[in-house]
Amino acid sequence: MKKWLPNMRLFTLFSFMALLLAGCGEPYVSALQPAGEVAEMQYDLMILATLIMVIVIAVVTVIFILVLLRFRRKKGDENKIPKQVEGSHKLEIIWTVIPILLLLVLAVPTVSATFKLADVSAMDKKDEDAIVINVTANLYWWEFEYPNQEIVTAQELIVPTDEKVYFNLKAADVKHSFWIPAVGGKMDTNTENTNRFWLKFDSKKTEEAGGLFYGKCAELCGPSHALMDFKVKPLPRAEFDQWVDKMTAAKGQEKPETSTDVARTGEEIFNTSCITCHAVNPGEKRPTAPNLANFGDRSSIAGKLEHSEENLKAWLRDPEEVKPGNKMTGTYGDLTEQDLDALTEYLMGLSVED
Amino acid sequence: MATTNSNSGNPKVDLAYRKRKSAEEMKFQVISFALMIFLTVIAFIAVGYKEYTAWFVVPFILLLAVVQVIFQLYYFMHMNHKGHEAPKMFLFSGVLIAAITVLAFMTIIWW
Amino acid sequence: MSTLTQKKGFGATLWDYLTTVDHKKIAKLYLIAGGFFFLLGGLEALIIRIQLAVPDNNFVSAGFYNEVLTMHGTTMIFLAAMPLLFGFMNAIMPLQIGARDVAFPFVNALGFWLFFFGGLFLNLSWFLGGAPDAGWTSYASLSLHSEGHGIDFYVLGLQISGIGTLIGGINFLVTIINMRAPGMTYMRMPLFTWSTFVASALILFAFPPLTVGLALMMFDRIFNTGFFQPSMGGNTIIWEHLFWIFGHPEVYILILPAFGIFSEIFATFSRKRLFGYSSMVFATVLIGFLGFMVWAHHMFTTGLGPIANAIFAVATMAIGVPTGIKIFNWLLTMWGGSIKFTTPMLYAVAFIPSFVMGGVTGIMLASAPADYQYHDSYFVVAHFHYVIVGGVVFGLLAGTHYWWPKMFGRMLNDTLGKVTFWLFLIGFHLTFFIQHFLGLMGMPRRIFTFLPGQGFEVGNVISSVGAAFMAVAVLVLLYNIVKTSINGEVASADSWEDGRTLEWAIASPAPEYNFKQLPLVRGLDALWVEKMQGKKEMTPAEPLGDIHMPNSSILPLTISLGLFVAAFGFLYHDEKSWSLAVMLIGGVITFGSMFLRSVKDDHGYHIHKEDLIDDNNKGVKA
Amino acid sequence: MHVEEKLTAETFPAEPEKATLEGKNKFLGFWFFLGGETVLFASLFATYLALKNNHGTGPSSQEIFQMPLAFAATMLLLTSSLTSVYAMYHMKNFNFKKMQLWLGLTLLLGAAFLGLEIYEFYHYVHEGHTITSSAFGSAFYVLVGTHGAHVAFGLCWILTLMIRNANRGLDLYNAPKFYVASLYWHFIDVVWVFIFTVVYLMGMVG
Ligand code: HEA
Ligand code: HEA
Ligand code: CUA
Ligand SMILES: [Cu+2]
What is the ipTM of this complex? Predict the structure, then answer.
C-alpha cells in the first residue's frame, strides 16, 4: 500500500491553500503574510484548520447537492409518500467518529502551540541579553519602555530582528489590546495585571514589508479606538544597539540641542505649554502624554498621520479633528500660526539620529 | 380527586394512617435538625480552636456545609420524596454550573 | 369564528392585547415588538455599513458610531432575535404538545411586558443624552469610564428585560413537563418543543450570572462600589467571566430554537420523518450542556494562561460533534424524501451550507493560538454573522413563513417570499463572506473608520453593497405582510398539507382554547400518524366538557411599567431632585400591582360545553 | 373538584401542594426558580471569593468578623427552618391554626436574624468597613446583603400569605402557596449555610 499517497495529496492541498491565502492584504498589516515565528505558527494552524474545514464543507456540500438534485418532488409524485426511515446507527456512528478524529488532528497542535506561545520563562531568568519591553496602553497612544536599557519611547516601537522580544503589557486607563497582525497575534493590556508574551520579527519579511509594520489596538476603548495605531520598526541587532546607545546618550544631555532661532522660539512655547505633559528626555516616563525625545525620527504623527510638517501643524491646530476624544485637545491654549511654525521646527528637530 | 391518594375506601382510616406517617417523618426532621445544629457547632469550634491549619479546616468546614445542605434538601425540602425527579435534575444542573463558576473564579482569576 | 372573539372596535382590541394572557396573542405581541426591534437593529447595521463603505468616512462621528455599534448588537440579540424566537415558542409549542395554554399565563404576559419595557427603556437612551457605547459586551473598564448615562440605560434596561426572559424560560419548562396531552411522551415531542425545552433550561442557568454582572456594574456606576475598580482592589476580568458565562449559552439559546424550526420544516417538506430523532434530541441536550463549559473561548487573549486556554480550546471544539450530528441528520431526512421547495424550505435548505460555514469558522476560532490573530478582528464578525444570520435569522424567516398561516390565518405570498429569500441570501453572503478576509488582513472590529492604504477598501465596499440587498429583502417581506393581510389566501387547518405535528390539527388561527378536546397522541408526528391511518383529525382523549380559561389582567403591564418608571429614578439618583420620588412611585406601582395580584383570587372562568358544541356548527374542528 | 371547595381533614389530600394542576405547576416552577437562584448565588460567591483578600486600606475579614454574632444568627435561621417544617407538618394534617402558629414563630426568628444582621452591618460601618471601602467591602455587602434581602422578602411574603388567608383556612388554592413559601425559606437557609461557612468561618481562617 502506498502510504504516502494521501500525504502527498494533503500536502498539495495544503500548499494550494497557502498560496491562495498568501498575497491577501498588505505585507505590513496582513496576518496572512506572517513575518515572524509567532505569526508563522499561527498561520500554520490557520491553514491546517482551514484545510480540515474545507474537507468538512466539501463532504456536506456533496451530500447536499446530491439530495437537492435527486429528491425534489417531481410532477406526478404529488401523492407519493416516501418511506419513513427512523435512522441508522451505523451512519450515526460514522458521523460522530470522523469529526472527533478531525478535531483531534486540530486539537493536538493547538494545545502544543498554546504552551509554546506562552513560554516567557526567559523573562524570569533575568537574562540580561533578552530584550524586554514594557508596553503601556493609554487612551489612544502607546508607550514603550525598555527597562534594561532605561529608555522610553512612544508610538513607534523599535525592536531587534530575528530574536525573541519579550513584552510586559499593561493598560493605564481602560483595557486595550496590543496587536501587530503581520508579526503575531494579540494580547490584551488589562488594567489590573501585567500580561506577558513574546514575538519575533523576521528580517527578510521586514524588508519585504518596507521596514515598517502596522500595530493596532484591538479592544474597543473609546471614540478613537479605530485610530489607536502604532508603528513597528524592526532593526538588525547591531543597528538596534546603536539606536539604544544614541537614546542613552541623549539622556545625558540637559535638554535637546536646538539649532535655529525659530526652533528656539518653539522650544520656549513648548516649555510653557507642553512640557507639563510631554517629556523630551528619552529616560523619562510620563503617564500623561507620549515621550517626544525622538519625535523627529518617527514615521507618523499620533500613530495616524503621515510624518510631515503640514500634518504636524494640523495635529497641533486641532487634535480633535484628527483623533476624536483624545486627551490632548484643549489642554494648551490657542496657538498662532507663528507658534505652530516654531513648534513644528522644534519638534521636527527632536531627534537622536544624526 | 382529593381521595385519589387513599388506599382504602374509608377516609377516616386513611387519615389516621397519614397522620402516623407524617408524625414518623416529623421525627426524622427533628433528628436531622439536631444533626445540623451539631455540624454547625463543630464547624464553629474547628475554626474557633485555632490549632488546626487552614489546609485542614477549610475543606473540613466545607464538607460539613455540604452535608448539612443535603439534610436540608432531602429532609426539609422533601427531595427524598418521589415526584421530585425534575426538581432534582434541575437543581443538580444548577449546582454543577455553580460549581464550575466558583471553581473557575478560584483558579483562573488570580491576579 | 368563536363566539368569544367577535369583531371589536380598535380601543377594545387594544385593551384586549394589553391585558391578554393568551399565549397566542402574547406570541403576536412578541412578534410585533421583536420585529420592530429587528428593523431598528437592521437600520443601525445599515448605518454601520454606510460608514464603513469607504475609508476615512465622515457619515457618522466616532462617538456616535460606537453607540450605533453597541445598540446594533444589543438590540439584535436581546430585543430582536430572542423575543422573535419567544414569539414562535409561545405560538407553537403549546399547540405542539396538545396543551390549552402555558403553565402560567399571567407570568407569560408579565415576561412579555418586562421585555418590552426593558427594551423601550434601553432605546430611550437615544433621546436622553446618548446610547451606551462600550459594545454589546460592555467590558468593565471602558463601561465604567464611559460618560453620560448610556451604560446606565444598558444596565437597567437589560436587567428588566432579562427578568422577563428568565420567567418566560421557567414558564416554558413547566409547560412542557406538566401540560403535555395524553400520550405525548418526552420522546414523542416535536423537535421544536425539545429545543424550546433545552433553550429554556439554558435561560434558567445563563441569565442569573448576567443578572449578577449587571447588578455589580450598576453598583459600581451608581453607588461607587469597587467590583471592577482596580484602584479599590476590584477586577474587571470578573465582568468578562460573568458576561461570557451568560454570553456563550446565550448564543445557543438563539440557535437551538432555530434548529428546532428547521427540523420541523425539513420533515414537513420532505414528507419524511426526521432522520435519527433520538440522536437529534440527544445532540440538542448535549449542545446545551457543553454550552456551559466553553465561555472562556471569548477570552483567549485576556491572559488566563496556557492551561485555561488549552482546556477551553478543546472543550469548545467538542461542540462541533453534536452539531455535526444534527447537520447530517437533516441531510439524511431529505435523502429519499419528496422535497417541495416552498419559501420556508428554501430557507432551511440554504441554512445548511451557510451555517456550516459559520460553524467551521467557530472551530477555527476555538484553536486558541490562532484566535490570538482572529480575536477582535472582522474574522470574528464574519463568524458570528454566519451562524447568527445564516442560522438564527434564516430560522426566524423560515418560521415566519411556515407558521404565519397558523398564527394569522392567511398564507404569505410564496412568490414574494422567494424574492425576499434570494435577495437576502445573496446579500448575506456578499456582506459577510468577504469579512473573513478583511479580518485576516488585519482589520480590527469595532472601528468607526479605517485609513486608506491598508488593503481594506475593496472588501468593505462589497460588504456594504451586500447589506443593501438585505435591506431590500426585508422591505419586500414587509410588503408581503401588508399585501397578504389585505387580500391573502385564507389558510386551512393543515396549511401546507404535509403537516405532521399537532399544531396542524386545529384551525388556523387556533381558537382561544386551542383544543376543544385534548388529543390522544399515538406516536411521533401525532397528526401524521392519524393521517396515515386515513383519518383527518386527532382522536380525542377526553369527552367534551367545560374548558377552564385564565382571566385577562392589566397587572403584568403595570408591574413592568413600575419597574420602568423606577429605573429612571435610579438612573438620575444623584442628579435630579425628583429621582427619589420617581423611584418611589415606580416601586409603589410595581409592588402595589403585585400586592393586588396576591390578594385578589383569580380562578379564571369556564367556556361551557354548550358554547363549544355551538362552535362546531360554525366549522371549527379540534 | 374546585380549588375553593371547603375541605375537611378527611378529604384533604396527602400532597395538597400537588393536588391541582395549578399546584403542580407552581411546585415545579418554583423548584426551577431555585435552580436559577443557585447559579445566581454561585456568581456572587465566586465574585466574593475572587475579591475577598483585596481589602485595600480598609479592615480585613479577620479584623472585623464577629464569631459570636455569626453563630447566633446561624442558630436563629436554622431554627426557623425547623419551625417552618413544623408548619408544613400541620398543613398536611389540615391543622390551620397550628400551621399559622408555627409560621408566626418562623417569622419571629427570621426577623430576629434580620435584626442581628442589620446590627452587624451598622457595627462594621462604624469600624470603617463599608460597601465603598474596598473591593472586599463591596463583595461582602452585596453577597450577604442579597441574602438579607431574600430574608426580608421571605418575611413579607409569608406574612402576606398568613394575613390574606387568616379567615379562610386551608384549601387547595392556598396550600401550594404556603408550600412554596416554605421551600423558599429553606432555600434561604441553604444559602446561609454557605455564607457562614465561606464568608465568616473561612474569613476567620484566612
Ligand atoms: C448563534 C450564535 C452562535 C453559534 C451557534 C456559534 C457557534 C460556535 N462558535 Fe461562536 N460566536 C458567536 C455566536 C455563535 N457562535 C458570537 C455572537 C460571537 C462573538 C461575540 C462577541 O465577541 O461579540 C462568537 C464568537 C466565538 C468565539 C470567540 C472568538 C473571539 O472573539 O476571539 C469562538 C472561539 O472559540 C467561537 C466558537 C464557536 C464554535 C466552536 C461554535 C460551534 O457551536 C459551531 C459548531 C458547528 C459546526 C462545527 C458546523 C457543523 C458540523 C459539522 C458539519 C461536523 C463536522 C465538523 C468538524 C469536524 C469541524 N465563537
Ligand atoms: C441577532 C444578531 C445580529 C443580526 C441579525 C445582525 C445583522 C447584521 N449585522 Fe450585526 N452584529 C451583531 C449581531 C447581529 N447582527 C453583534 C452582536 C455585533 C457585535 C456588536 C459589538 O461589537 O458590540 C454585530 C456587529 C456588526 C458589525 C461589526 C461592527 C464593528 O465591529 O464595527 C457589522 C458590520 O458590518 C454588522 C453588520 C450587520 C448587518 C449588515 C446585518 C444585517 O443582516 C441586517 C439586515 C437587516 C436589515 C438591513 C433591516 C432592514 C431595515 C430596514 C429596511 C429599515 C426599515 C426601518 C424602519 C421602518 C425603522 N454587525
Ligand atoms: Cu485602545 Cu482600542
Ligand atoms: Cu462562544
Answer: 0.94
